[in-house]
């Protein structure tokens, strides 16, 4: 897939394997001592910030530093990176634990955004910074220039519109789990419609988790069941 779409062939395929392995999968196969993608994500985040900064610096010579910083943050935010991962069809190949798969992890922005950064980290180690730059100019920069990365769907509003087309229903978001250290806490949220759960989401803030839960409900196609209730 990578070779056909992007002309990329990894010399060290274990790096690619690691980039597409989520912690949940590695934890379920501890005896096999499988590596997960968190360290590669750290590396990919750094090279992404650098190359996007370089691009913006040259592309917008009249923009002040503050405006460049805001634009960069829009490009490298979780929702944008997840969108880039989906556009590359990376979501089809990530390895998830059974529980994470069951809870909709394959569609979660946090996981897909981290996957995209992990892939960049793997590509950096295997082929160097110029290969990462070429990939970004193939996948990310065209969307930046067209403004596609700014188009983030408000799934909570979308879910509400679907459900309330024939009358009011009770839509409620409930935090069901908090985990991670205080400086990097994540939230898991369920969306309930007339007290029945229709979606679940995870994010680095309650608002992001609610959006993920709403998106999960919309994309699973469960919302239509409650139309007119």
TrEMBL record:
Q: Which reaction does it catalyse?
A: Endonucleolytic cleavage to 5'-phosphomonoester
Class of enzymatic activity (EC top level): hydrolase
Limits of the RNase III domain: 1-128
- Any keyword RNA-binding? yes
Q: Which residues bind Mg(2+)?
A: 41, 114, 117
**Which cofactor names does the annotation list?**
Mg(2+)
Q: What is its EC number?
A: 3.1.26.3
Q: Which GO terms describe its molecular function?
A: double-stranded RNA binding; identical protein binding; metal ion binding; ribonuclease III activity; rRNA binding
Q: What is its main location?
A: cytoplasm
Keyword list (alphabetical) reads: Cytoplasm, Endonuclease, Hydrolase, Magnesium, Metal-binding, mRNA processing, Nuclease, RNA-binding, rRNA processing, rRNA-binding, tRNA processing
- Look up the record and report any one GO term of the cellular component aspect: cytoplasm
Q: Which GO terms describe its biological process?
A: mRNA processing; regulation of gene expression; rRNA processing; tRNA processing
Where can this protein be found? Answer: Cytoplasm
Q: Where is the catalytic site?
A: 45, 117
Any Pfam family from its record, for instance, is dsrm
Where does the DRBM domain lie?
154-223
Q: How does it assemble?
A: Homodimer.
Family membership, please give it: Belongs to the ribonuclease III family.
Q: What does this protein do?
A: Digests double-stranded RNA. Involved in the processing of primary rRNA transcript to yield the immediate precursors to the large and small rRNAs (23S and 16S). Also processes some mRNAs, and tRNAs when they are encoded in the rRNA operon.
Protein name in the entry: Ribonuclease 3
Q: Which organism is it from?
A: Streptococcus himalayensis
Lineage of source species = Bacteria, Bacillati, Bacillota, Bacilli, Lactobacillales
Give the gene name.
rnc
